Amino acid sequence: MSRRAATARKVLLTGFDPFGGETINPSWEAVRGLDGEDIAGHRIVATCLPTEFGRSRRALRAAIARAEPGIVLCVGQAGGRAALSIERVAINVDDARIPDNAGRQPVDRPIIADAPAAYFATLPIKSMLTALQGAGVPAEISQTAGTFVCNHVFFALMHALASRRTCRGGFVHIPYLPEQAARHPGAPGLALETVQRGLRILIETAATTRRDRRIAAGATH
Amino acid sequence: MSRRAATARKVLLTGFDPFGGETINPSWEAVRGLDGEDIAGHRIVATCLPTEFGRSRRALRAAIARAEPGIVLCVGQAGGRAALSIERVAINVDDARIPDNAGRQPVDRPIIADAPAAYFATLPIKSMLTALQGAGVPAEISQTAGTFVCNHVFFALMHALASRRTCRGGFVHIPYLPEQAARHPGAPGLALETVQRGLRILIETAATTRRDRRIAAGATH
Amino acid sequence: MSRRAATARKVLLTGFDPFGGETINPSWEAVRGLDGEDIAGHRIVATCLPTEFGRSRRALRAAIARAEPGIVLCVGQAGGRAALSIERVAINVDDARIPDNAGRQPVDRPIIADAPAAYFATLPIKSMLTALQGAGVPAEISQTAGTFVCNHVFFALMHALASRRTCRGGFVHIPYLPEQAARHPGAPGLALETVQRGLRILIETAATTRRDRRIAAGATH
Amino acid sequence: MSRRAATARKVLLTGFDPFGGETINPSWEAVRGLDGEDIAGHRIVATCLPTEFGRSRRALRAAIARAEPGIVLCVGQAGGRAALSIERVAINVDDARIPDNAGRQPVDRPIIADAPAAYFATLPIKSMLTALQGAGVPAEISQTAGTFVCNHVFFALMHALASRRTCRGGFVHIPYLPEQAARHPGAPGLALETVQRGLRILIETAATTRRDRRIAAGATH
């Protein structure tokens, strides 16, 4: 039993702390409620990352080293988006419109010098999209994770995993919670329960899918 | 007991049946779950109206005659909106972009000949807005209920109430449910629980507020 | 000659002065360029109205008294809209989110006491829509002119015309100019030339159309 | 004189032919009108690329070989965007929601096998943004060029230039023309003249700017 636990595969699931004037971050609200759950033979380990350039990716690296996961799914807030937004690609640049939680605001700076310009997610994003839609959870593929701390962490994740063939990774943006949307006229709000149901589906699909489906979900521009 | 029931004030709460290719209508899903509840001394009577010009307003009139309510709140689906959208005004025109559920598609036809061009809601819409926002439910004042069956019913409601000083009325549009939004890329989806919590707040506020607050919630255009 | 001029039918075309932090108002920029033109036997008289509750409608009434027009078309800025937006209905309420140019910000106040709740435009809005679309000018029917000074003037116009059977009236909202849009990220900008071409088509259609077309151009909500 | 012409630096400016049911493509309409112009000591050479995977990038390579330009700016249509949208990054994937003009619809296929995951534009995109805004042309930095033929060509361009230190390149998406927008309700339309003025500014800025400005123009998500 203890042996089995010791060898159980792990999913590292990360959220962020609040930023940009919000008092909560829906990513951490959603993620922390799943900590310790077992999904498709994987134990979920939830971690909260600081919304700070630099510190966030060091915290992520430390969490990966601790958990030795087979899957890493990072989750971040995308106020204004309406759906669970599965990111396709992380790009090697920071360009911050607002300061991070430490007051830093890098502009057009590589995240990691001498690293590639971008990494694609290695999770089966199209199968994940299909699974969410089939379960009635609003979902989409996104072609950009922006240039703020979310993309920063996503890029650092994929860079770290580039040398680890045994671990796959990806990123999903989530909408405001309804109580946040209530303060942002016009912005969609998705219920915590719906987001958590979606995250469970994403993890199960990632855990059980080796070969992604080929379904068109691109953008004409 | 029977006496008390006989004298209890009623709230007539209406939803619609599905239209436009949907298999559910969130308005009826939300409304029917509240049937029989007591809120601020009012008993909720829920009724489903057909999404049809003409038949819908006859069904509404019949429901008003049966329930003799002190408050009528009609609820309709507004796919694409993100918030509980409290309508300010109903206008005396049908102009249907799509056929109703009976296949009729009136264009630029008065709803009721010789009736006024418009009626304002008589519920305290600004107090209702404030109450929703304070409770963390996404909400807004809307300056138009469109020109389809929702506006048709809203106009017919206010016309019927114009001669009854003892009953106040209004209309609220609600977003898609998440499972509907999952089939409409980019459209917001609000959870049934959030909508129902919002409807309870709207009814309580309407029941307990005589004089509306003066808070700016207009539109520059 | 002077006789002919004296009896020529007139179109009163109004724009507004800048508001809300803008240094120009596209409505007046467009309108003043058409002053004195002859379209379908009508002479255009252009007037600039102040973006102020009260003063704007007194200025409008004075301009109508001076010009004795057969057609009045009021034009206003709708920053964020993408098309020439032909308004269907004016409602009898002021609800200002921002102060007008005199610093006044009325909330939920009737524009004219004892006047009807609303007036419909008496210009052939569907024929005007069709004519614009046929000429390649972005156009739409709008079900609300908002609750700021534009709606205020539109309502006052239709109230003034209600007792004059010889004059028809309406309102059209126009987008930002490109140079304004350049300062409002995401907002559409329509070229002055396109707007003016559209206004000429609107006036010609209004002047030559007695019976409007019945074409669906409503909104489901 | 002929000698000078022979050694004059060139700007290769490309547009696309119509796709997706349109009868014109604003990119080629705008670009062809600038053919032969001289801007900041550079002669513009305009070329039309087919909206086809594969053929488009071969046509681009041939045009580069012919013109031997110092700058390449590719221009494409982005129906629904409101501004001149300067692209930051091209990614190595085709994912077509609609078939290209040859009926092909690749899904999740690398554009160039063994090439990097992405390339950043090498033109001074922030200086270009600032110049457009200063001239009153609606402009923005875009973090994704999509996954259709525009991104395909942009990626192929940057891959071709990666081995040519003497030539810099980039991509700009432009809105519909007003006559196109007239057929797409809600979509912005920007006048041809405004687009062409913008393109001249982009080329002049690219030609005269060696070191880009550091101005925040990223996206939080």
UniProtKB/TrEMBL annotation, chains A, B, C, D:
EC numbers: 3.4.19.3
Catalytic activity line of the entry: Release of an N-terminal pyroglutamyl group from a polypeptide, the second amino acid generally not being Pro
Cell location: Cytoplasm
Cross-referenced Gene3D superfamilies: Peptidase C15, pyroglutamyl peptidase I-like (3.40.630.20)
Residues at the catalytic site: E87, C150, H173
Pfam name, any one: Peptidase_C15
Homology family: Belongs to the peptidase C15 family.
Stored NCBIfam families: PRK13197.1 (NF009676), pyro_pdase (TIGR00504)
Name by which UniProt lists this protein: Pyrrolidone-carboxylate peptidase
Organism whose genome encodes this protein: Tahibacter amnicola
Organism lineage: Bacteria, Pseudomonadati, Pseudomonadota, Gammaproteobacteria, Lysobacterales
Name of the encoding gene: pcp
